[in-house]
Amino acid sequence: MAEKKGFEGFEPIFLETKADWEQENAGADRRPFLIYVYALDSSRLDIIATDYHFHTWERVVTVPELEDLRDDIGIGGTWSDFVEYLISSLSVGDVKLIMSGQLTSDSGAAHAKLIALKSKGLPRISFSLNRVINSSANDVMADLALSLFKACKKKQNEVVKERDHSTRLMGILSSERERNDSLQKQLDALSFLSKRKAPKSKTSDKPSIASDTLNNYDTMLASEMQESSEMPSVKDSQSVKISRRAAPVSRSLYRAKVRGVSLQDTGDIDDH
């Protein structure tokens, strides 16, 4: 599908420049020129240059003419790329108006050429302009002045809308800040009251469940340790058992018992 070529959405371009005169007219009056480029319709651009004094120039450029210019200067890419390059060259590039021909106080220069260069080393765009005189020049200057006023008015309205939008946003932001400050004060007040009402920590008469559990565990542990300390070792147990065995009875005591002698104590036996 072929790309659609035209100037839909083309924003008007206004710029100021001074004319560069050829050598024979080097002493001519150098008044500033106002350049105006806009779309007459979807297929034509109108280029106007005037100093609102002696010189008014105009050129209507069609899509086929721009296609030829595009081929001559060797700009590739799509049609949209070329239009973007054209706009950049005229709006932010180096734009010059070259004047030539016979210069008199009545007729002015005979020829003019508009040259736009986006940046050094890139292709240069050039348009030859046609002289506009008498009432036609007055009409062109009047239309340019009205178009400039409309463009300024549009920009002013855009600025006002942006300012109003910014003011509304600032109002919303201010309200949110006040609301946040109010909520923060309420939170601070609640936090202060909760700290004042909180009872001081006192030792309870009855231990808590966790304390009871811990104390019971400590008691059980101490009891087990005590029992383990009191429990004799294996060696001690054996010695106890050995000590508890009956001491051997002497032979005399045994014989006396057999004979029926009643013994009171071991001391008497020793005395006998």
UniProtKB/TrEMBL annotation:
Region (Disordered): 195-214, 224-246
Top-level taxon of the source organism: Eukaryota
Annotated Polar residues bias: 225-241
Protein name as it appears in the record: Uncharacterized protein LOC103722222 isoform X1
